Amino acid sequence: MSTTRLLVLGVVRIFQPAHGYFIRRELLSWDVEKWANINPGSIYNALRTLTREGFLIETTEDRAGKSASGPAQGRTTYQLTPDGQNEFLNQLRESLWQVDQWNNSTLLGGLSFMTFLRREEVIDAMEARANSLRSIMAEGRHTVRDMQESRSAPPHTVEHFLVSFRRWDGELTWCEEFVERLRAGHYRFTPEPGWDSGPSRDGRWPGPLDEPVSIQR
Predict the structure, then answer these.
(1) pLDDT band at 68, cuts 50/70/90?
(2) How many domains does the chain have?
(3) Same structural domain for residues 129 and 111?
(4) 213 FRET partner, CA 20 to 30 A, in 37, 61, 86, 175?
(5) Residue 58: beta bridge partners?
(6) Does 81 share its domain with 41?
């Protein structure tokens, strides 16, 4: 799946109709350049591609007055088509259900929009994800054993696997803790009351955690 594709569809889904500059500004405010390796140009490219594929529809809004370069110009806004809504949900589900063991940005993209799904589905997805991580780690242990016994690679390259095991084990622990929080009622999901509420006038979002999450080293 494409994290860029999911993020662009998701932001359009939240703010539609939204113009390209707003979509770009919103995503950059999420620091997507850092955790998803998305640059501003790729956001505009995704908008064009998704429109060409029929997942977005463009609408031109007229602007009053004249610009410095000539007559009045329109501003293009984007909305999801019915196919676009389906594509968004497909990308969202894939990001949560499927483990990309080398790229964590797909999971982070999915978590950004998880409340568009029902709570039960996200719980099921996280439990399936935990099982996939256990399988990946089991396979990796066999690979390391074979590599060490056959001496088919420099011995220090085993550290490549060991650091990956730590990452996968950390994600597995998070999955298990996350499921506990979901079962306890944290966050608001479709179609629970207030699931799509924005921040209040003082900028605070509804539905805080019942208890602070402990982040331990």
Answers:
(1) very low
(2) 2
(3) no
(4) 37
(5) 78
(6) yes
165 vs 99: CA distance, rounded Å:
14
Starting at the edge strand found earlier in the chain, the sheet holding 74-80 runs 18-19, 74-80, 56-62
98: its two tokens? 């499927």
H helical segments located in 100-189: 105-112, 119-150, 158-183
158 lies in the same domain as 126: yes
Range of the domain at 81: 1-60+74-115
3 state SS of 18: strand
Taking alpha carbons only, the member of 45, 58, 54, 50 closest to residue 19 is 58
Buried b (16+ CB within 10 A) or exposed e, 74-101: eeebbbbeeebeebbeebbbbbbbebee
Q: pLDDT tens across 103-161, in order?
A: 889 999 999 999 999 999 999 999 999 999 999 999 988 988 888 888 877 888 888 88
Cα separation of the two ends of the chain: 31
H or E element that contains 84: helix 82-97
34 and 136 in one domain?
A: no
The model's pTM is 0.84
29 exposure class (CB count in 10 Å sphere: 0-12, 13-18, 19+): exposed
- Nearest C-alpha neighbor of 24 from the set 11, 14, 36: 11
